[in-house]
Amino acid sequence: MIVINQLLKKLYYEIVEFRLTKFGNISYQKITNDRYFDNVPVNLWQLWYGNSSLSFRNLGFKYVSDVEQMSNDELIGSIYKEFCSIAQLQNIFANFSKQNCEDKY
């Protein structure tokens, strides 16, 4: 059980890092060239700052001390929420990539 818990913690940290680096503000700016966040779609803004349980604001990055105390079930629940958030973010960011390709040609 201890090994599984450690693997879940490692996976949780990797997923959070992936979400923060691939779908955060800086990634948005790099992909869209929207330096001042003038054109952020409402659905993306909601995933960053909204009240949804899947928003950056509510998912946050749990303190290491909190994660270290989490049970396997709690870790699995947190990992699931991260995957749900990432799925929504991927759909939004895929549209930015398509728009950039269309704008270039």
Description of the structure:
With 105 residues, the protein is mostly helical. The protein has one domain. Helices cover 76% and strands 0% of the residues. The longest helix has 33 residues, at 72-104. It starts with a helix and ends with a helix.
Question: How would you concisely characterize the structure shown here?
Answer:
The chain is mainly alpha-helical.
Which characteristics define this entry?
105 residues; mainly alpha; 0% strand
Radius of gyration of CA atoms, rounded to a whole number: 16 Å
Overall pLDDT: 92
Give the termini separation.
54 Å
Uncertain stretches of 5 or more adjacent residues: none
Q: Helical amount among residues, as a percent range? A: over 70%
Number of domains: 1
User: Could you say which overall geometry the principal axes of the C-alpha atoms support?
Assistant: elongated
Query: Major sheet, described briefly?
Result: none
How many DSSP helices?
6
Structural class: mainly alpha
The amount of beta strand, in percent, is under 5%
Topology record:
Elements: H1 2-23, H2 25-32, H3 42-49, H4 56-59, H5 64-68, H6 72-104
